[in-house]
């Protein structure tokens, strides 16, 4: 479905899954548009796997969705409220979760030092 709730059908060549702003996205080459496009996974209602191989295209850099960006990694310590614990575990790879008190946990995150990683 598009952002307006309209059902669409696309044929794409998948290239990269990535997580951005609390959502998962598929970066792919659209055969309909003849260019790279980004699709939010939660809007994909069904998929069909085609028995067709494709030649990998080089990624184009458009609107910061290119997964081939080079950046360094930063290690950070975070303390999160217990209500955010599940989202943290599902969203990023963490170190051991340590209970700080009855309402908070502490852990280590390794994140790309770039807005694509945030």
Give the secondary structure arrangement, pairings included.
Layout: E1 12-20, E2 23-30, E3 35-40, E4 73-81, H1 85-91, E5 98-101, E6 104-112
Antiparallel strand pairs: 1-2, 2-3, 4-6, 5-6
Q: Structural class, from helix and strand content? A: mainly beta
Strand order of the largest sheet: 1-2-3
Number of domains in the coordinates? 2
Poorly predicted runs are: none
Oligomer status: single chain
Overall shape: it is elongated
The gyration radius over C-alpha positions equals: 18 Å
Strand content: 35-45%
Query: Sheet bearing the most strands, described?
Result: 3 strands, antiparallel
The rounded distance between the terminal residues' Cα atoms is 25 Å
Individual helix count: 1
User: Which bin fits the share of residues in helices?
Assistant: under 10%
Count of extended strands = 6
Give a nutshell description of this structure.
The protein has 118 residues and is mostly beta strands. It has one helix spanning 85-91, and strands spanning 12-20, 23-30, 35-40, 73-81, 98-101, 104-112.
């Amino acid at each position: 479905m598009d952002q307006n709730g309209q059902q669409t059908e696309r044929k794409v060549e998948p290239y990269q899954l990535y997580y951005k702003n609390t959502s998962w996205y598929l970066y792919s080459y659209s055969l309909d548009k003849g260019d790279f496009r980004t699709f939010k996974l939660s809007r994909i209602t069904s998929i069909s796997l085609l028995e067709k191989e494709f030649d990998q295209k080089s990624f184009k850099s458009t609107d910061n969705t290119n997964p081939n960006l080079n950046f360094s990694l930063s290690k950070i310590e975070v303390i999160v409220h217990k209500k955010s614990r599940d989202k943290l575990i599902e969203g990023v790879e963490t170190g051991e979760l340590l209970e700080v008190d009855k309402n908070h946990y502490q852990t280590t995150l390794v994140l790309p030092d770039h807005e694509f990683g945030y």
